[in-house]
Structures are given as C-alpha cells and as structure tokens.
Write a structure and sequence with these properties.
By secondary structure, this protein is α+β, with helices and mostly antiparallel strands. Strand 1 and strand 2 form a beta hairpin. The radius of gyration is 12 Å and the shape is globular.
Length: 67
C-alpha cells in the first residue's frame, strides 16, 4: 500500500458519488482517524460528513451518528 494525497477536489467527487447513491467504504490508519498532535486527517472534511461516524477533534473517541 502507498499513500495517495487527496485534495479538496477529489473529496468533492467522493461526496458527489455517495450523494447519487453509490457505496463508499473507507479504511484508514492512525493519521486518518487520530492524526498528528491529536488532529485527525479527515476531521471537518466531506469524508467526515458522509461517514456514519463523528471524527472527534481530540482523535481519541469515535461516536456513531444516526443519519
């Protein structure tokens, strides 16, 4: 595996894909969900909006949201 940087334009494409009813599965590691200095990589992004979980700012807790 290798890391592929995703800018805001690609994140918007993922949001559009999910909005039209397509499936999206996300797997991520430490940086995605806990992040450097407790700042998760996908906090406050479109990815956080489309996933059924809230990525907390402290990177230590996850809570499931019902959408």
């Amino acid at each position: 595996m290798f890391e592929v940087p995703m800018g805001p334009d690609r994140l918007d494409l993922i949001e559009e894909f999910v909005t039209i009813g397509k499936s999206f599965i996300m797997a991520g590691g430490w940086n995605s969900f806990q992040g450097i200095k407790g700042i998760p990589g996908y906090h406050d992004t479109v990815i956080e909006e489309i996933l059924p979980v809230e990525i907390k700012n402290n990177g230590l807790n996850f809570s499931v949201t019902i959408r």
